[in-house]
Amino acid sequence: MDFLYDYLGNRLDIGGSGSGDGFHDVTTYGIDNTGATDVSDALNVLIENGGMFYFPPGLYLLNGQLVVPSNTWIKGAGEQTVFKAANELDAVYHTICNNNASDISARLCRNEAANGYPAVSEFISDYDSNIVLMDFKVDGNWQGRDLINWQKTYTGHGTAINREPGTNIEIQAAHNVLIENVIAVNGIQHNINIRAGAYCYGMGITYECLLPAYQCTIRNCEAKNERYDDCITTHDCHDILIDNCVVSVENNANGTYSSAVSNGFEIDDGSSFVEVRNCHSYYTVAGFQAKGHDNTPPAHHITFRNCTAESTMLGFSLACGPDTEYEDGTVAGRCRNIDIIDCSIIRPYAFSNVTNWLGTLLFMDIKNALDVTVNNLYIENTDVPTWVQNNYGQPLRTIFYMRGRCNNVKFDGVQITNPITNDQANSALFIVGQDSANVILRDIVLCGFTGNPIVRVNKNDAKHFLTIDGIYSERLAASDKVLQVANTTSESEILLKGSRLNMVLLEQ
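Request: output the structure for the sequence above.
Response:
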């Protein structure tokens, strides 16, 4: 049993030692598994030189981070093995992290020290590698920890810099990492995060972080009810596989959170060559995201395959920073080469207790994205459950929104099984923004649509090339429209189901 797996499932020899199957039973070393005492210091001493460690069923209380070094395998007995952050653990700390993520200021690093931020070399000298986290539950316990009075500020270089709160499982500057059969709940910021040694936020769209994590796998995991941000996320890393995972944030929808924006799977700043497959996101604001922030390198070469966003407010989000950043057409600044293949959106609805988003419902939001393919998307568009909080009275906008500079966007096969009605369609189903170009809509099958045009192009000029090759829908009203260009109706009659509309629109 002396093996680990890389991100493709290949075995890696770690040279582990121990008795029987190769694992050390930590309780034979006096580690308490009753939850009565803090075991973080004792565990960190026990595992500091690596090896294979088995954690029998029980509660392992952590009033400090569990720090996992290279060449280490942490294995539990399933959800009966629980690592739990103590109430006293400062909110700045992670629950479980690799060695490179253990310093509370390491997450602030830049490639070189600048503007008060430390250099990555101050905290990280090389990669961690060959780490397995398997078969346990980790509870970040945000409900019991102090989320107000914690070590928010770093002043190591003379300028006050704000830190972020801790993650349930944080992997920084590492490769050949496997996280498998882990249940991660109640993280403060994220439940699982994979990232580079340095930090790219605000450093420009061409910034490349030192020590990007790579060849990491998150497989057969569940992440649930983090407090602030994302269930499973990546930053500044490449060659990452997220497979057969489930995330959920029920508290988004039941009113527990009054201002959080808690998303499902977020592939964020500087991430590339990431595949998310066979995954399911429940009750999250955005189900699946590939994005960047203002003045950061966006995600690119991302695949979502056979993924389902269920009971989410925004099924899929592909977005970059402000429009003005891309006026020169810089490819580096575009969220690009994104594939959404064989995915589903089930029962989307708006829970407008989330004040940041005000309950606006979208099927898909695409902003400043390049080379996007949506192939074989299935949508069950049903009513909002009565228990969902909608305190702001926001309408349901079941739309695909292409805004900013979206180029080379192709929808090839979209099926919506329930009618889009007036209360949901206070704007067109497909909105092509005024600076978007080369959009293809092929084989769009609707159960029915009423109240607005199916497709609206917001600007009529030479930049636009829109191809519509096959829209099918039942007629719901005599005023139903297929296409509107720059607020002028070009096609006012919707075709009956079974009829085919083949139309190429080229505005010159």
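The two ends are 66 Å apart (CA to CA).
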